[in-house]
Amino acid sequence: MITQFSYGTPVETFAVAEDIPVSDHERLRRFTREKGSPQIFSCPLGEGDAVYGLGETMRGINKRGARYISFNYDDPRHRDDMPSMYGAHNFVVVDGESPFGAFFDTPAKVVFDIDAKRDGTLTVACESQDLRLYLIEGESAYDVVKQFLGVIGRSFLPPLWAFGYGQSRWGYKTKLDVSRVAARHQEAGIPLDYICMDIDYMDRYIDFTVNRRRFPNLEDYSARMKERGIHLVPIVDAGIKIEPGNPVYEEGVRNGYFCKNREGKDFKAEVWPGMTHFPDFLREEVRKWFGEQYRVYTSLGLEGFWNDMNEPAIFSTEYRAKGAKPDAERGDPDQPERHTADFKDFFHRLDDGREKSNYEVHNIFGAMMTRASGEGLERLLDNRYLLFSRSSYIGAHRYGGIWTGDNASTWEMLRQNVYHMPSLNMCGFLYSGADTGGFGGNSSRELMLRWLAVSVFTPLMRNHSAIFTKKQECFRFRNPEDFRTIITLRYRLLPYLYSEFMKAALRQDMLIRPLAFDYPRDEKVRQIEDQLMVGESVMIAPVLEQGVKGRIVYLPEPMTEVRFSSEGFTCMDVCAGERTVMVPLNQVVFYIRQGKLVPVGKSAANTAELDLMDVELLGSGKDYEQYVDDGYTKKCGLDRCIVRRKGEKL
Ligand code: MIG
C-alpha cells in the first residue's frame, strides 16, 4: 500500500510516474512532524531492524549506524564516512516487524540519520518545506521495494551491445589510440563491444564538437568500427563553453536557456572547457533543445553516450576563484570542506514560474540532464541507445543508467561496488556499474581479475581509469588469456544476464538483490553482504580480499556450484550451509539455486556475433523462461519470453 503526503508546493521532480492519491496528514502517525525548518521525520527502529535503500551511498547494504546526506557532489574520496556521492536516492526501507519504505521526494538536501546517534531512531531531515513523502507498507522489505519500483516507472532499456564489455580511459587522445585498443583486444582474443571516448575527443573540451585533427572523419570511422562490432561512446559534460561562434552557446544565450547569476545574467562557472554556462535542465523547453544537440553525434552514427560533471562539478565561478577556501559564512556546516556555497550563486526558472537557487533544487540537476539526453536520443534514433550518467536522482533511471563515479583501484572500492549494486537496484537503477579496476590509482593484476569477476554480473561492465594512472587495459597484464577467460564468461552468460535484466526491467523488479530479500526467513543471511542474488537463478560470492586463494560461502539452500575456467563450465551439487571454496585468479565460481536453470551460450568477439538462442542449460531446474529479442530495436516486451526445457533439443 502506497500513500502520498504532500507539504507546501513541491518542485516537480518527475520521480514518481504513477498517480498516487494524496492522503490526509493526520494519517501520518508513524512519523512526528515538527513545524519549522527543517522538516523532521523520525521513527523508532527495532533492535534488529535492517535499513535498506539509499542507492549510491557509502558503507554496506544495511545502512544502519551512520548518517547520509543527499546532496550531489563530485568528490573522489570515497571513504566509508563520506556522507554523499554523485546521486540522491532518497528511498529507505525499514525491514522490521511491519516492513515499510519511505521516499522523500525533494530536490533539496536531505539528511538521513539511521541510528547514527545510537538512540534507536531513524531521523530524516528535509531542508525544504516543500516536499512529497511516499510511504509504502508491505509484507516484506522486498515487497516494499517492488511496490516502489512499480510507481517510479520502468527502467531504461539499453541495447544488447551495452551488456558487452567496454573499454575506457581518460586519455585516448586520437583515433589511433582508439584503434590500438580495439586491435590489442582482438589480438588477445578479449571480447569487446564498445570503447568510450573521454573529453580528449572534443575540440578544447567543448561539448558537441569533435577534434577533427585527432579524430578525422569520425562518421566513417564509427561506421567501420561498428562493422567490427565495436561502438564508440563519447562523453558529454554539463557546461556549455562561453565562446562566440559556439552555436550551442549562442543559441542558449539568445533563448535564455542558461541558469542565471545573482544579478540575473547568465551564470559563469569554470569547468573543463574554461568558462561555461549551465543549461537550465529543469525546464522542458531547455531539455528539448539540449537533447536535440545530440544530433551532432547521432548523425555521425553514434548511439551511446555518458554524461559527466552534472552534479554539477565546478572548478571556479565568477564569484569564487579557483582553489579559494569556502566562504565560512556561506559554507556548508555538513560538508565544510566542499564548495557547496557555489550552488547558492545560480538560479533556475521552473516551468511553474518560480525561481529557485540551484542549492534548493540541486539534486535533480543531473537527472534532468539525463532526461534531456534520453528524450532527445529517443527522438533522434530509431533504435535503443546507451546512456549512463554520473549524477542522478530517482526517476532518471527511466532515461539512462549510471556509473558510480571516480572510485579508486583499491579492494575497499571493489567491495563497495558489491554493496552498491543491490542498493541501486532498490532505487530503480538497474543499468549500473563501477569503473572496473578502479578510476584513480594503479590496479594490480590480482585486483583487476577479481574486479572483472564481479563486473561479469553487473549490467554495465566497463574498465575505466584516469589519465594520470597506470594503464589498465586487460591486454597489458601478464597472461592476458586469464583476463580473456573472465570476460568470456560474461559473454557466455549473456543469454541469462540479458534475459534477467530485461525481465526485471519489464516487470519493474530488481535484478541484483541482497540475499535477505530472497531468503527472508533465514536469520543468517541478514548478516551477509558480500554475496548477492543476480536474477532468478544465480547467487554470487565473489572474492574481495587481496592475497587469498578462496573464501567461505554461505548457502541458504542446496545449490549447484558452477566453476568457470578456460576449459568451460563444471557443475557440482553442494549442500546448504557454509563451505570453503578455492577460486584461482583465472576462474569464477557462482551458484545456481535449487530448481533453477541458467542458459549459457557460446562466446563471441562481441555481442553482434552472439547467438542468444544457442544455449545449454546449467542447473537442477526443469525449465527457464528466457527473454530473447533482436537486441537493438524498440520491440521489447514480455511476450518475447520463450520457455526452455531441460533435456529438450534446442
Ligand atoms: O574532472 O572526463 O568521473 O570518468 O574520466 C574529471 C574526465 C572529469 C570525471 C569522470 C571520469 C572522467 C573524467 N571526469
Bound molecules: ligand MIG
Number of strands: 38
Terminal CA distance reads 43 Å
Query: Radius of gyration over alpha carbons?
Result: 24 Å
Query: Strands across the major sheet, in which order?
Result: 24-23-21-17-13-12-11-26-25
Q: Strand share of the residues? A: 15-25%
Low-confidence stretches: none
Tally of helical runs: 12
> Which geometry do the CA atoms define?
globular
Class based on secondary structure composition and strand pairing: alpha+beta
Mean pLDDT: 96
Task: Give helix % range.
Answer: 10-25%
Main sheet characteristics: 9 strands, parallel
Summarize the structure.
With 650 residues, the protein is of the alpha+beta class. The protein has 12 helices and 38 strands.
Helix/strand layout:
Layout: E1 2-7, E2 39-44, E3 50-53, E4 66-70, E5 87-88, E6 91-95, E7 100-105, E8 110-114, E9 121-126, E10 131-137, H1 141-152, E11 165-167, H2 175-187, E12 194-197, H3 218-227, E13 231-237, E14 240-241, H4 247-255, E15 269-271, E16 274-277, H5 284-292, H6 295-298, E17 304-308, E18 316-317, E19 347-349, E20 355-357, H7 358-361, H8 365-380, E21 386-389, E22 392-393, E23 401-403, H9 411-426, E24 432-433, E25 435-436, H10 445-455, E26 461-463, H11 480-507, E27 512-514, H12 515-518, E28 532-534, E29 538-540, E30 550-555, E31 559-565, E32 568-574, E33 577-582, E34 588-593, E35 598-600, E36 616-618, E37 623-627, E38 641-645
Parallel strand pairs: 5-22, 11-12, 11-26, 12-13, 13-17, 17-21, 21-23, 23-24, 25-26
Antiparallel strand pairs: 1-10, 2-9, 3-6, 4-8, 6-7, 7-10, 8-9, 14-16, 15-16, 15-18, 19-20, 27-28, 28-29, 29-34, 30-33, 31-32, 31-34, 35-36, 37-38
Helix pairs in contact: 5-8, 9-10
Ligand MIG is lined by residues 170, 198-199, 235, 308, 390, 405-406, 439, 464.
